[in-house]
Amino acid sequence: MAGNTILYRGSLKSCNYHCSYCPFSKHKESMRELQTDRQQWIRFCRSLAERAAVLDIRALLVAPYGEALIHSWYWRGFAELTRLQRTDAVGAQTNLSFPVASSMEYFRQAGGCGDKLRLWASFHPEMVSVSRFAKQCGRMLDEGVRLCAGAVANPKYLEVCRQIRKALPAEVYLWLNRMDGQKRPYTEEEQRAFEEIDPFFFRELSYPQADCKQCEKRLFVEGDGTLRTCNLGMRQKRNWYELASDFPKPECRRKFCSCYLAYAGREDFGRAGDFGEYPLFRMLK
Ligand code: SF4
Ligand code: SF4
To answer: What is the assigned CATH class of domain 4-281?
Structure first.
């Protein structure tokens, strides 16, 4: 049976890619900031290992403000956490730009269990070609790692989205996110075209009304231990390092759950059953 899920955000705020619309591409992280991120991650992994049983945590998704998997400490942490008997799924959102062979070797040498690794790979059309992205996906699949892939449903890149779909094996789910900042609704034709690529794209066009009673089994943790019910939700009074035996009661002032990381962590979304036991990883059953 599925347990609770943690989404670790960390304090990292930098990326090796430079997408023009993204604030994290502009920030050059100092050695000190990287060290802080590393220390916070190591501390978090240790605390998760200690409390996974009592808090019934079985899944961890790193959802960083930037790119985490180019840093070796995340792979070491994954190795430790996938080794735990309690965990079913451990992974990250990533632009997939890390070196596959050396990262996986490092992960395996540290005792990691590849069966539990899950990657959420985002395609960035300004930074990488379809063939290069698909090759990286293929390399991870060859390593036995499960992944989903996806992109923003920008009408300008409709043809590129079609090409990604064609370039990936059928068993890899290709998601499309609604484009933030698009100043007009999608036309019917665009909607249809994107739904041919991602059959669940319609969920991005009509977000559910907020209902935080549905959000008791998932928590977001910042690098310093600050807790939020979701990425859109409120800061909680208790800190991760103060949690002893239960998750805090969820609080939320939002009207809608307006992104996948929010609505896919709701229990009613999980009951829909399309994405298996841990829908936040966005992998079809
Ligand atoms: S890959 Fe993601 S985090 Fe990195 S610059 Fe692009 S949008 Fe930002
Ligand atoms: S916005 Fe977030 S915390 Fe609020 S109800 Fe939606 S998923 Fe839950």
So the answer is: alpha beta
